Structures are given as C-alpha cells and as structure tokens.
Amino acid sequence: MTSRFEWVTIDSVEPRRLADFWCGVLGYVVYEDKNGDAVEIGPDPEEPDEQRLAALRSGPAAPNISFVRVPETKTIAKNRLHFEICPIDSDQQTELERLLALGAAKTDVGQGDGRSWVVLADPEGNEFCLARSLAPGEFDL
C-alpha cells in the first residue's frame, strides 16, 4: 500500500497574489478561487478528471498547490519545507532574472557562497531554491 502526493497547502496573507506568482513560476493555472480566501492552482488540465485520477493512482504526478488565507504573516525563520525548482527551457541565470521580475527576491538562509543553487523568497517570504537547469544542452545524463 502506498499514497500519492496530490497537493500542498500554504498559509498566506494574500492567497490570490501568491497563487498568481506561483502560476507564473510553474506555468500552472488557477483551478478554484474561493473569494480570495483559498486559491488552488495546478498543471493546466488537459485530461478529464477520471483520466487525471487514473494517472495519479498509477504513479507520482505534479502536485497542486492551495493557498489559504491566514491573518498572520510568515515568521522570521527559515522554512522547514521548501520547493526546489529547475528551469526546463532556459539556463539558470535567465530563469533567475525571470523569477526576480515576477516578484521573487534573493534571500540568505545561511547557505554561504559558491553554491550551485540560488535561494529565493516568494512575495510573502517563503523560501525556495532555483537549482540547475534541465534545459536541453544545459543538463545531460
């Protein structure tokens, strides 16, 4: 018996703003917006629900992300859980510039210099890492 990772929920002061940011980062779309209090995003659905459920049962799938309104802002502490993202059609520097233009900010969580990844924060301060590029010619097996 096993389970599948279907979605992650992130507390947010402005769920729609954060959902829009992450849609821009991941190429996701908004599935549901409950008056800005809860917003769910995920991969652009190309299959009917029953086919998506069958795919989820058969193996790992890209998870959806839900942003839920909470009254408090993020505390000043390093996240215990964060996303690692990899560009798929550009080099790391080009993707870094795109993410900064979307509203990300470079941040320091004590990672030190000379790392192959870049630590960023989304518009509400949640850290995530920009790792190596998976674009053709940038990453070879």
UniProtKB/TrEMBL annotation:
<dbReference type="InterPro" id="IPR037523">
    <property type="entry name" value="VOC_core"/>
</dbReference>
<dbReference type="InterPro" id="IPR041581">
    <property type="entry name" value="Glyoxalase_6"/>
</dbReference>
<dbReference type="InterPro" id="IPR029068">
    <property type="entry name" value="Glyas_Bleomycin-R_OHBP_Dase"/>
</dbReference>
<protein>
    <submittedName>
        <fullName>VOC family protein</fullName>
    </submittedName>
</protein>
<dbReference type="Pfam" id="PF18029">
    <property type="entry name" value="Glyoxalase_6"/>
</dbReference>
<feature type="domain" description="VOC">
    <location>
        <begin position="4"/>
        <end position="133"/>
    </location>
</feature>
